[in-house]
Specification:
This protein is α/β, with parallel strands linked by helices and about 260 residues long. It has helices at about 5-20, 25-40, 60-65, 75-90, 125-135, 195, 210-220, 235-240; strands at about 50, 70-75, 95-100, 110-115, 135-150, 155-160, 165-175, 180-185, 200-205, 225-230, 255-260. The chain has a single domain (about 5-260), classed as Vaccinia Virus protein VP39 (Rossmann fold).
């Protein structure tokens, strides 16, 4: 499977994904994953940024609200249409376009920074996507991205709960087993049955990489790793969002900020 074929799956997911996410059922994103990403993000006021794999635009808009001049791309025309509709409703100056992460329609050194929220692990040509992000960054610019955590988003994963329903451990296996496009079918578990009525489960192709592979791909693309985060919800967050309690047991997400060398370095 290549990025175009993977993108077709995401385009079919886009309408239902966006409706449920905008209704508040993407709880892991809203409760702690995106807030932690934004807390780790450097000051971007006045900078020119690119959001790679923007989906329906919610996270792009959060970066724009921090004062960045944002462009954003997604391989799914449906996601881009939905993002443009929201931009028309509440303009933030974001320019959206349909494009693949492995063929960005931007000149070399065109942006000061790039973000990618929960996208890069869904692209089979990971090296190509990282190379493109590096290309479009100005010297000294940075890429900050989030992905599912390679150590815990494995081919086998089982949530081990006690009689009280509280997660005590996460059982993982197959860490070194490549998936290469194996389909996963699921939906937002927090969404009640009424919200999911008539909604087909998302079909998501999976392209797992080990942690070592991710680090070596970044180094191979020419990046210098600057900061790493493994967000977890605190107790207050879990009281407000009980469904994310299992994310206190292991790291479900990995955040990385990597920088392109400045000229002369």
């Amino acid at each position: 499977m290549n990025h175009r074929e993977a993108g077709e799956y995401w385009d079919r997911n886009a309408e239902a994904w966006s409706r449920l996410a905008r209704a508040g059922w993407d709880t892991y994103r809203d409760a702690f994953n995106t807030p932690a990403f934004l807390e780790m993000l450097p000051d971007v006021r006045g900078l020119c940024g690119l959001d790679i794999g923007c989906g329906e635009g919610a996270n792009t808009r959060e970066v724009a609200r921090r004062g960045a001049r944002m462009a954003a791309v997604d391989i799914s025309p449906t996601f881009v249409r939905l993002a443009c509709e929201e931009e028309a409703r509440e303009p933030l100056g974001i320019r959206y376009g349909v494009a693949s992460a492995v063929a960005l329609p931007f000149d070399d050194g065109a942006v000061d920074f790039a973000t990618s929220f929960m996208c890069l692990m869904d692209i089979p040509e990971t090296a190509g996507a990282l190379a493109e992000a590096h290309r479009v960054l100005r010297p000294g610019g940075f890429l900050q991205f989030s992905i599912t955590h390679p150590c815990f988003d494995t081919p086998h994963r089982r949530n081990l709960r006690g009689p009280d329903g509280i997660t005590r451990a996460i059982e993982v296996g197959g860490y070194f087993t490549p998936l290469d496009g194996a389909l996963s079918r699921w939906t937002f578990s927090a969404a009640p049955a009424a919200a999911r009525e008539g909604v087909r489960p998302f079909e998501v192709p999976r392209f797992n990489r080990t942690l070592g592979e991710w680090l070596n791909l970044l180094i191979g693309a020419g990046f210098v790793i600057e900061r790493v985060g493994e967000p977890r919800p605190d107790d207050e967050t879990v009281r407000a969002w009980p469904s994310v309690q299992d994310a206190q047991v292991v790291a479900y997400f990995l955040h990385v900020r990597a920088r392109k060398a400045a000229i002369g370095v």
